[in-house]
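Lab notebook page, bench 4
Experiment: in silico fold of construct C2
Operator: M.H.
Input chain length: 319 residues
Purpose: comparison with the prior construct
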Amino acid sequence: MLLRENNRVCKILGTKYPIIQGGMAWVANADLAAAVSNGGGLGIIAAANTPPEILEKEIIRAKSLIHDNKPFGLNIMLMSPTANDALEVAAAQRVPVVTTGAGSPGKVLERLKPLGTVVIPVIASVAQAKRVERQGADAVVAEGMEAGGHIGELTSMVLTPQISQAVKIPVICAGGVADGRGVVAAFALGAEGVQVGTRFICCDECTVHANYKQAVIDARDRSTAITGQSLGHPVRCLRNKLTAEFERLESENAPASEIEALGTGKLRAAVVDGDTEWGSLMSGQSAAMINDILPAKTIIENMFSDAEKILQNLGDVKK
Protein backbone atom coordinates (compact mmCIF):
# COMPACT_ATOMS: atom_id res chain seq x y z
CA MET A 1 0.00 0.00 0.00
CA LEU A 2 2.94 2.35 0.58
CA LEU A 3 3.43 2.95 -3.14
CA ARG A 4 -0.23 3.33 -4.05
CA GLU A 5 -1.68 5.66 -1.42
CA ASN A 6 -2.19 9.14 -2.88
CA ASN A 7 0.01 8.25 -5.83
CA ARG A 8 -0.29 10.92 -8.54
CA VAL A 9 0.50 8.53 -11.39
CA CYS A 10 -2.32 6.18 -10.36
CA LYS A 11 -4.69 9.14 -10.11
CA ILE A 12 -3.75 10.52 -13.52
CA LEU A 13 -3.94 7.14 -15.25
CA GLY A 14 -6.81 5.62 -13.31
CA THR A 15 -4.81 2.47 -12.57
CA LYS A 16 -4.39 0.31 -9.50
CA TYR A 17 -0.61 0.33 -9.74
CA PRO A 18 1.75 3.12 -10.91
CA ILE A 19 3.18 1.12 -13.79
CA ILE A 20 3.13 1.69 -17.55
CA GLN A 21 4.03 -0.96 -20.10
CA GLY A 22 6.60 0.21 -22.63
CA GLY A 23 5.47 1.02 -26.17
CA MET A 24 7.63 -1.57 -27.93
CA ALA A 25 7.23 -1.65 -31.71
CA TRP A 26 5.98 -5.01 -33.05
CA VAL A 27 5.70 -6.24 -29.43
CA ALA A 28 3.19 -3.93 -27.75
CA ASN A 29 -0.05 -5.03 -29.40
CA ALA A 30 -3.66 -5.30 -28.20
CA ASP A 31 -3.07 -8.64 -26.48
CA LEU A 32 -0.19 -7.38 -24.35
CA ALA A 33 -1.79 -4.00 -23.64
CA ALA A 34 -5.03 -5.64 -22.50
CA ALA A 35 -3.19 -8.07 -20.23
CA VAL A 36 -1.27 -5.27 -18.51
CA SER A 37 -4.36 -3.08 -18.14
CA ASN A 38 -6.39 -5.98 -16.78
CA GLY A 39 -3.52 -6.65 -14.36
CA GLY A 40 -3.77 -3.21 -12.82
CA GLY A 41 -1.23 -1.28 -14.87
CA LEU A 42 -1.49 0.78 -18.04
CA GLY A 43 -1.15 -1.32 -21.16
CA ILE A 44 0.23 0.44 -24.24
CA ILE A 45 -0.22 -0.27 -27.94
CA ALA A 46 2.75 0.80 -30.06
CA ALA A 47 1.67 2.74 -33.14
CA ALA A 48 5.19 2.61 -34.65
CA ASN A 49 4.73 2.61 -38.46
CA THR A 50 1.39 0.81 -38.40
CA PRO A 51 -1.04 1.86 -41.15
CA PRO A 52 -3.96 3.78 -39.59
CA GLU A 53 -6.66 1.28 -40.57
CA ILE A 54 -4.75 -1.57 -38.91
CA LEU A 55 -3.96 0.55 -35.85
CA GLU A 56 -7.63 1.40 -35.45
CA LYS A 57 -8.55 -2.28 -35.49
CA GLU A 58 -5.89 -2.99 -32.87
CA ILE A 59 -7.29 -0.30 -30.58
CA ILE A 60 -10.83 -1.63 -31.01
CA ARG A 61 -9.56 -5.13 -30.23
CA ALA A 62 -7.85 -3.89 -27.06
CA LYS A 63 -11.09 -2.26 -25.92
CA SER A 64 -12.88 -5.58 -26.38
CA LEU A 65 -10.27 -7.44 -24.32
CA ILE A 66 -9.99 -4.99 -21.43
CA HIS A 67 -12.37 -5.55 -18.53
CA ASP A 68 -14.43 -2.98 -16.63
CA ASN A 69 -13.45 -0.08 -18.87
CA LYS A 70 -9.91 -0.04 -17.49
CA PRO A 71 -7.60 2.52 -19.14
CA PHE A 72 -5.04 1.77 -21.82
CA GLY A 73 -2.73 3.85 -23.96
CA LEU A 74 -1.12 4.37 -27.34
CA ASN A 75 2.52 5.17 -27.98
CA ILE A 76 3.18 7.48 -30.93
CA MET A 77 6.72 7.58 -32.28
CA LEU A 78 6.84 11.12 -33.63
CA MET A 79 9.61 10.46 -36.16
CA SER A 80 7.44 7.81 -37.84
CA PRO A 81 5.96 8.69 -41.24
CA THR A 82 2.58 7.54 -39.91
CA ALA A 83 2.70 9.65 -36.72
CA ASN A 84 0.04 12.09 -37.90
CA ASP A 85 -2.25 9.23 -38.87
CA ALA A 86 -1.75 7.64 -35.44
CA LEU A 87 -2.59 10.96 -33.81
CA GLU A 88 -5.90 11.17 -35.67
CA VAL A 89 -6.74 7.55 -34.83
CA ALA A 90 -6.06 8.31 -31.16
CA ALA A 91 -8.41 11.29 -31.37
CA ALA A 92 -11.16 9.40 -33.18
CA GLN A 93 -10.98 6.44 -30.79
CA ARG A 94 -10.68 8.66 -27.71
CA VAL A 95 -7.65 6.75 -26.45
CA PRO A 96 -7.39 7.59 -22.71
CA VAL A 97 -3.59 7.94 -22.57
CA VAL A 98 -0.95 8.68 -25.19
CA THR A 99 2.79 8.44 -24.68
CA THR A 100 5.15 9.99 -27.21
CA GLY A 101 8.77 9.54 -28.19
CA ALA A 102 11.38 10.58 -30.75
CA GLY A 103 10.29 14.18 -31.25
CA SER A 104 8.48 17.20 -29.87
CA PRO A 105 4.98 16.35 -28.60
CA GLY A 106 3.56 19.83 -29.21
CA LYS A 107 1.09 18.81 -31.90
CA VAL A 108 -0.03 15.80 -29.84
CA LEU A 109 -0.74 17.98 -26.83
CA GLU A 110 -2.60 20.56 -28.93
CA ARG A 111 -4.76 17.92 -30.59
CA LEU A 112 -5.49 15.55 -27.71
CA LYS A 113 -5.49 17.55 -24.49
CA PRO A 114 -8.76 19.33 -25.37
CA LEU A 115 -10.30 15.86 -25.81
CA GLY A 116 -9.34 14.87 -22.28
CA THR A 117 -6.49 12.56 -23.27
CA VAL A 118 -3.62 12.21 -20.82
CA VAL A 119 -0.36 12.90 -22.68
CA ILE A 120 2.95 11.64 -21.29
CA PRO A 121 6.12 12.24 -23.35
CA VAL A 122 9.10 9.91 -23.02
CA ILE A 123 12.17 12.10 -22.56
CA ALA A 124 15.89 11.61 -22.01
CA SER A 125 17.10 14.97 -20.66
CA VAL A 126 16.22 17.70 -18.18
CA ALA A 127 15.80 20.25 -20.97
CA GLN A 128 13.24 18.04 -22.70
CA ALA A 129 11.35 17.53 -19.44
CA LYS A 130 11.11 21.25 -18.76
CA ARG A 131 9.98 21.96 -22.31
CA VAL A 132 7.17 19.41 -22.37
CA GLU A 133 6.01 20.52 -18.91
CA ARG A 134 5.62 24.06 -20.30
CA GLN A 135 3.72 22.63 -23.25
CA GLY A 136 1.19 21.00 -20.93
CA ALA A 137 2.33 17.39 -20.48
CA ASP A 138 0.55 15.54 -17.65
CA ALA A 139 3.69 13.61 -16.65
CA VAL A 140 6.98 12.49 -18.17
CA VAL A 141 8.70 9.16 -18.60
CA ALA A 142 12.40 9.59 -17.80
CA GLU A 143 14.04 6.85 -19.83
CA GLY A 144 17.60 5.85 -19.03
CA MET A 145 20.02 4.16 -21.38
CA GLU A 146 19.54 0.81 -19.61
CA ALA A 147 16.30 0.46 -21.56
CA GLY A 148 15.85 -1.57 -24.72
CA GLY A 149 15.25 -0.11 -28.16
CA HIS A 150 15.96 3.57 -28.85
CA ILE A 151 17.86 5.13 -25.95
CA GLY A 152 19.44 8.36 -24.73
CA GLU A 153 22.82 9.03 -23.11
CA LEU A 154 22.09 9.09 -19.36
CA THR A 155 21.38 6.25 -16.97
CA SER A 156 18.14 6.06 -15.00
CA MET A 157 20.18 6.45 -11.80
CA VAL A 158 21.26 9.99 -12.68
CA LEU A 159 18.46 11.05 -15.03
CA THR A 160 15.48 10.36 -12.76
CA PRO A 161 16.52 12.47 -9.75
CA GLN A 162 17.56 15.40 -11.94
CA ILE A 163 14.23 15.44 -13.75
CA SER A 164 12.31 14.95 -10.49
CA GLN A 165 13.94 18.11 -9.20
CA ALA A 166 13.43 20.05 -12.42
CA VAL A 167 9.67 19.59 -12.96
CA LYS A 168 6.51 19.62 -10.86
CA ILE A 169 4.58 17.05 -12.89
CA PRO A 170 4.96 13.36 -11.97
CA VAL A 171 8.03 11.51 -13.19
CA ILE A 172 7.86 7.90 -14.32
CA CYS A 173 11.19 6.05 -14.34
CA ALA A 174 12.04 3.76 -17.26
CA GLY A 175 15.11 1.66 -17.95
CA GLY A 176 16.41 -1.18 -15.80
CA VAL A 177 13.20 -1.85 -13.88
CA ALA A 178 12.19 -5.52 -13.86
CA ASP A 179 11.28 -6.34 -10.27
CA GLY A 180 10.37 -4.89 -6.88
CA ARG A 181 13.93 -3.73 -6.24
CA GLY A 182 13.77 -1.56 -9.35
CA VAL A 183 10.45 -0.07 -8.24
CA VAL A 184 11.83 0.88 -4.83
CA ALA A 185 14.96 2.35 -6.42
CA ALA A 186 12.86 4.40 -8.87
CA PHE A 187 10.77 5.86 -6.04
CA ALA A 188 13.91 6.57 -4.00
CA LEU A 189 15.21 8.57 -6.97
CA GLY A 190 12.10 10.74 -6.98
CA ALA A 191 9.86 8.90 -9.46
CA GLU A 192 6.18 8.27 -8.75
CA GLY A 193 5.81 5.41 -11.19
CA VAL A 194 7.72 3.06 -13.46
CA GLN A 195 7.61 2.10 -17.11
CA VAL A 196 8.52 -1.51 -17.83
CA GLY A 197 9.21 -3.01 -21.24
CA THR A 198 11.62 -5.95 -21.33
CA ARG A 199 10.00 -7.80 -18.41
CA PHE A 200 6.69 -7.86 -20.26
CA ILE A 201 8.28 -9.52 -23.30
CA CYS A 202 8.42 -12.59 -21.08
CA CYS A 203 4.79 -12.73 -20.07
CA ASP A 204 2.24 -15.31 -21.18
CA GLU A 205 0.14 -12.84 -23.13
CA CYS A 206 2.99 -11.34 -25.14
CA THR A 207 2.74 -12.70 -28.69
CA VAL A 208 6.40 -12.45 -29.71
CA HIS A 209 8.03 -15.62 -31.00
CA ALA A 210 9.10 -18.13 -28.34
CA ASN A 211 12.70 -17.83 -29.55
CA TYR A 212 12.71 -14.13 -28.68
CA LYS A 213 11.42 -14.83 -25.16
CA GLN A 214 14.03 -17.54 -24.65
CA ALA A 215 16.79 -15.18 -25.79
CA VAL A 216 15.73 -12.71 -23.10
CA ILE A 217 15.65 -15.45 -20.46
CA ASP A 218 19.11 -16.65 -21.53
CA ALA A 219 20.60 -13.12 -21.37
CA ARG A 220 23.37 -12.30 -18.95
CA ASP A 221 24.70 -9.03 -17.55
CA ARG A 222 26.71 -8.14 -20.69
CA SER A 223 24.39 -9.63 -23.29
CA THR A 224 23.21 -6.35 -24.83
CA ALA A 225 24.90 -4.08 -27.33
CA ILE A 226 24.19 -0.56 -28.56
CA THR A 227 24.07 -0.08 -32.32
CA GLY A 228 23.30 2.87 -34.58
CA GLN A 229 25.28 5.44 -32.62
CA SER A 230 26.90 6.77 -35.79
CA LEU A 231 23.41 7.50 -37.13
CA GLY A 232 22.44 9.49 -34.06
CA HIS A 233 19.74 6.97 -33.13
CA PRO A 234 21.34 4.43 -30.76
CA VAL A 235 19.40 1.22 -30.16
CA ARG A 236 19.99 -1.40 -27.45
CA CYS A 237 19.52 -5.05 -28.46
CA LEU A 238 20.69 -8.48 -27.41
CA ARG A 239 24.03 -9.36 -29.00
CA ASN A 240 23.89 -11.59 -32.08
CA LYS A 241 25.19 -11.70 -35.65
CA LEU A 242 23.14 -8.63 -36.53
CA THR A 243 24.65 -6.44 -33.80
CA ALA A 244 28.13 -7.71 -34.73
CA GLU A 245 27.55 -6.66 -38.35
CA PHE A 246 26.27 -3.26 -37.22
CA GLU A 247 29.42 -2.81 -35.16
CA ARG A 248 31.62 -3.81 -38.11
CA LEU A 249 29.94 -1.37 -40.49
CA GLU A 250 30.08 1.48 -38.00
CA SER A 251 33.75 0.83 -37.18
CA GLU A 252 34.52 0.98 -40.90
CA ASN A 253 32.56 4.24 -41.30
CA ALA A 254 30.20 2.66 -43.79
CA PRO A 255 27.65 4.97 -45.46
CA ALA A 256 24.55 5.67 -43.37
CA SER A 257 22.39 4.21 -46.13
CA GLU A 258 24.20 0.87 -45.86
CA ILE A 259 23.83 0.78 -42.08
CA GLU A 260 20.14 1.69 -42.27
CA ALA A 261 19.54 -0.96 -44.93
CA LEU A 262 21.00 -3.61 -42.63
CA GLY A 263 18.33 -2.88 -40.03
CA THR A 264 15.36 -2.91 -42.39
CA GLY A 265 12.84 -5.59 -41.43
CA LYS A 266 15.01 -7.01 -38.66
CA LEU A 267 12.64 -6.28 -35.78
CA ARG A 268 9.86 -8.16 -37.54
CA ALA A 269 12.30 -11.00 -38.18
CA ALA A 270 12.88 -11.31 -34.44
CA VAL A 271 9.30 -10.82 -33.22
CA VAL A 272 7.39 -12.75 -35.88
CA ASP A 273 9.89 -15.21 -37.36
CA GLY A 274 11.95 -15.86 -34.23
CA ASP A 275 15.26 -15.18 -35.95
CA THR A 276 17.66 -14.79 -33.02
CA GLU A 277 20.77 -14.52 -35.19
CA TRP A 278 19.84 -11.80 -37.68
CA GLY A 279 16.72 -10.41 -36.03
CA SER A 280 16.75 -7.23 -33.95
CA LEU A 281 16.18 -8.51 -30.40
CA MET A 282 15.48 -5.17 -28.75
CA SER A 283 15.95 -5.60 -25.02
CA GLY A 284 17.06 -3.66 -21.98
CA GLN A 285 19.90 -4.59 -19.66
CA SER A 286 17.28 -5.84 -17.20
CA ALA A 287 16.98 -8.98 -19.36
CA ALA A 288 19.71 -10.47 -17.19
CA MET A 289 17.28 -10.44 -14.24
CA ILE A 290 14.46 -12.23 -16.08
CA ASN A 291 14.30 -16.00 -15.80
CA ASP A 292 10.67 -17.00 -16.22
CA ILE A 293 7.49 -16.40 -18.20
CA LEU A 294 4.45 -15.43 -16.13
CA PRO A 295 1.04 -13.81 -16.67
CA ALA A 296 1.27 -10.01 -16.87
CA LYS A 297 -0.99 -9.69 -13.83
CA THR A 298 1.31 -11.90 -11.78
CA ILE A 299 4.38 -9.94 -12.86
CA ILE A 300 2.77 -6.67 -11.73
CA GLU A 301 1.48 -8.05 -8.44
CA ASN A 302 4.82 -9.70 -7.62
CA MET A 303 6.69 -6.51 -8.47
CA PHE A 304 4.70 -4.32 -6.10
CA SER A 305 4.35 -6.95 -3.40
CA ASP A 306 8.12 -7.37 -3.36
CA ALA A 307 8.58 -3.59 -3.35
CA GLU A 308 6.35 -3.24 -0.32
CA LYS A 309 8.26 -6.01 1.48
CA ILE A 310 11.53 -4.25 0.77
CA LEU A 311 10.16 -1.00 2.14
CA GLN A 312 8.89 -2.80 5.21
CA ASN A 313 12.30 -4.38 5.79
CA LEU A 314 13.96 -1.00 5.40
CA GLY A 315 11.56 0.40 7.97
CA ASP A 316 12.43 -2.40 10.38
CA VAL A 317 16.14 -1.69 9.91
CA LYS A 318 15.61 2.00 10.74
CA LYS A 319 13.82 1.04 13.96
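Observations: The mean pLDDT is 93. The CA atoms of residues 94 and 218 lie 40 Å apart.
Next step: discuss at group meeting.
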